Amino acid sequence: MNNTTKQKYDLAERMLKGKIPAEEVQMMTGLDIEVIKKLEEDVAPMVKDAKILQGLDNKDLDIGEILFDNNANDEDADKDY
Asked: What is the C-alpha separation between 63 and 24, in angstroms, rounded?
């Protein structure tokens, strides 16, 4: 598989993850519809998992406190840590 073909597959996968219909993906990428249907089957579990996690926060996931660096632009303040 050359780079151009790989890029078409990657594009098709991203489009399918974004819930773009297979027919539109086929039209935009030029890949065979059978190939796109196979990619769609492979992507479906990932899309399902993303829907499950949508709207959850750190308390729902029970991962504890999340610390944010509110001084990201000041490297001098961070050098002691």
From this structure: 39
How confident is the model at residue 76, as a pLDDT?
62
Residue given tokens 């249907």 in the structure block = 37
Tens digits of per-residue pLDDT, 15-63? 988 888 999 999 999 999 999 999 988 887 776 666 666 666 655 556 6
* Residues whose CB falls within 8 Å of the CB of residue 14, separated by 6 or more in sequence, listed in order: none
**Which 3-state string (H, E, C) describes 51-71?**
HHHCCCCHHHHCCCCCCCCCC
Tokens of 23: 């027919």
Residue 10, classified by CB atoms within 10 Å of its CB into exposed (0-12), middle (13-18) or buried (19+), is: exposed
